[in-house]
Design a protein that fits this description.
The chain contains 13 helices and ten strands. The protein is α/β, with parallel strands linked by helices and 348 residues long. The chain has one domain: TIM Barrel, CATH 3.20.20.100. The structure holds NADP nicotinamide-adenine-dinucleotide phosphate. NADP nicotinamide-adenine-dinucleotide phosphate binds next to β10 and α10.
Amino acid sequence: MVERLNLTDDYSISRVINGCWQLSVGHSIKSQLDKEDIMKAFTMLVERGFTTFDCADIYTGAEEFLGEFSERLKQITSINDKQIQIHTKYVPDKDKLGNIKFEDTKTIITRSLTRLKKDTLDLVQFHWWDYEADGMLDTLAHLERLKEEGYIRNLALTNFDTEHIAMIQAANFKIVSCQTQYSLLDRRPEKGFVDYCQAQGITQLCYGTLAGGLISERYIGVDDVDPDNRSQVKYKQIIEEGIGWDNYQNVLVILKTIADKHKVDLPQVAVRYILDRKGVGATIIGTRSSRHVLANEKIFSFKLDDDDISKIELFLAKTKILAGDCYELERSDPKFKSIIKTNLNKEK
Ligand SMILES: NC(=O)c1ccc[n+]([C@@H]2O[C@H](COP(=O)([O-])OP(=O)(O)OC[C@H]3O[C@@H](n4cnc5c(N)ncnc54)[C@H](OP(=O)(O)O)[C@@H]3O)[C@@H](O)[C@H]2O)c1
């Protein structure tokens, strides 16, 4: 059974969310997507209880794809669109920050509703590229107003740090969750961010738990990787700047030993470990084919015991944690910044 979580009293999600960045134009570098196979994967996932999806206004083509999927789901199953949850994001272009009017926000939110073929957005995650730019709280207030007007059901954040989430809390917004990178390779949230959010009732929805597929048996013994897609470009950088390639290889071997003991696959151990961390509500796993659907069901078929957890933690305690708070390197370090696209709303 896929575990579920009540994010609020009347809003429940699956604890593994189907991530849709992988569907966006430009995510793939080498491999091609098979649209029919992804429709099949999504149907299989929903039928098995993975009912929650994650996309964004800037994942070009993903909201439209999910809109089409919801329609198709009604036609080919007895499941209707009220039984699935679709989380999107509001990521104003960096060029526009400081000059965003209510009508600009409303245009983007209405566009998401049209693309997703919905009357209300289940959950909108707000991203802000630059803390130095004016208008962060004012723009969040636009979303709050749209929530009051019925366009949005739940308000959430993505890629914030402790200082700025505290600023948002001080302004009395009702934030239910924050989407944060949190994995065996990126433990920045443990520096204080998760504790703060937990105390405030803000749940973590975590990405990066499989490092774009690099956390897999497939990469044991591999000296280097030529990234297949933009996730892998990003997580290769996280490995190199953080625990380093040798320790990444050591982590894979530890995970493989634990996976063999529980008769599951290595990625399921990596996801289970993060799902069991305090403050974590769900992990988001990128879906770009039907290949892993059955494997991902196994995440809920076993428990990690104390011995497994101490094996992982004793090893991680000897490795480097990335510098700064959540998403700080991505905002400040030229190497990290250089691989991030910040004006995607302009793209068709
Ligand atoms: N807020 C943000 O800034 C942000 C940033 C990144 C991602 N996200 C969200 O998080 C989602 C996840 O993206 P991510 O980049 O972090 O990728 P990820 O979930 O760490 O990795 C996804 C890849 O893992 C592989 N995989 C999935 N299940 C597997 C299994 N059971 N066994 C082995 N491999 C498996 C697949 O690779 P193959 O297809 O190669 O096998 C898949 O494409 C995105 O779709 C998006 O919704 C948000």
